């Protein structure tokens, strides 16, 4: 007994020391952040699968039988693929052509490229779709009024699959443009110059040299756009449902809006959509791994020289002006024009004479509008701030720590990337309808949805910024006696701030305009601007809707300008 007694206090001391280390701020913060990332990513997905495959009697495929037993399901799947692939091809053709002209040629009006690539990203999808209804509806479309003397009434019809492809493809083309600009800038132009010197025409060079060299970027852009189109809700809901054209997202919405709502059938449709999205992402990853075969940037320096277009220069300049009008000027002008009318009508002397600001005055008297604006601002600012705070710590776990399994944090954070917004809303419904915590029906469930949906983007911004900072700075602070929390707060966060601010701006913009994940989760009194616009459209209040849309776009523009001004000050302070 006397020989064993000294070991007991030693073991107790070791245990207490281990517990004290676990109770440090560093371990607590890391554990909380990792737990929140895992919870946000996995719990909704788990409840969605459980609610789809299990009921009170156990395992069941009844939801799949009801969802896919409908004889119209084949048409729905066909429409979904047609819409997704068509939108991806259109956006690829337009975005790639514009990127090539901008990087490789001496095309005029290059200043419009920035506006044509950035402004459509600020315009919410629901407003962009409604603007095209005003332009190309067979009944009220302004373009149809213009061409009616030549082609007859209803020449353009946006309420078709082709109309859906046109609107979605144009709205996605700026994203393809930004992706392809990077690809063209990193490609050695001497390969094209060599082909031209060998007698090839410009079209042959583009088809046989440029396109093969940028194939990984092209395939990745197509697959990203296909996934984005599959999860699109605004275009199918506003354009397709008019003529009974269903895709996965609009069918899920219809099933949930029917009485009584069939959650299991909606979950089965959501699982099918999720599988299609996962297939697209998997193919994209395979193409990305094969990208090394197409590397053209080596240690040899090169300077891209613009290709002279010659007689085609004014033609291409005109095409750029037309694209800028179709994607930016036209939609914004028709919204502004409609917002000044007492009732929607084609342009005429009487219409211009009747213009007033009554719709904007009505907005100030509309309590729902002010509530929706406050909710959108609160959710945008709140979700952007929370996501970037969490992802700053998450990026440290992934990049800096040596914690076993740290890559799981990175993988978990990207799970929501393959979950369409409407599916995420349905998954959160499964979670919080069964939760004892009274979150469902409050604004907090929308905050959870936005944080979950945009977590992957916040992680990407934070991880990229963390990789650019040398670990020597942290080591110097720790050698000087700073704790982990002091080092993180006073050294890392200031250095990460430009990247974190960029992510914050992006999440603020996309959260402010979010509709697909909100449409199933909001409740009266907790509407956001996109929901209110959707309701105004369903009620036929086109002029008030347009005024609300103008206010929404202007608010977003002001927020982005302020954020970028703050970002410039942050950069100056760090220099």
From TrEMBL:
Keyword Cell inner membrane (UniProt): yes
Keyword set, alphabetical order: Cell inner membrane, Cell membrane, Membrane, Transmembrane, Transmembrane helix, Transport
Compartment(s) where it occurs, according to its Swiss-Prot or TrEMBL record: Cell inner membrane; Cell membrane
Membrane-topology annotation of the record: Multi-pass membrane protein
InterPro entries on file: MetI-like, MetI-like_sf
Organism: Nonomuraea marmarensis
Transmembrane segments: 27-49, 81-101, 113-135, 155-184, 205-227, 263-287, 315-337, 377-399, 411-433, 439-456, 491-512, 542-564
Residue ranges of domain ABC transmembrane type-1 in the record: 77-282, 373-563
Pfam families: BPD_transp_1 (PF00528)
UniProt-recorded name of the protein: ABC transporter permease
Highest taxon of source: Bacteria
Main location (coarse class): membrane
Family to which the UniProt record says this protein belongs: Belongs to the binding-protein-dependent transport system permease family.
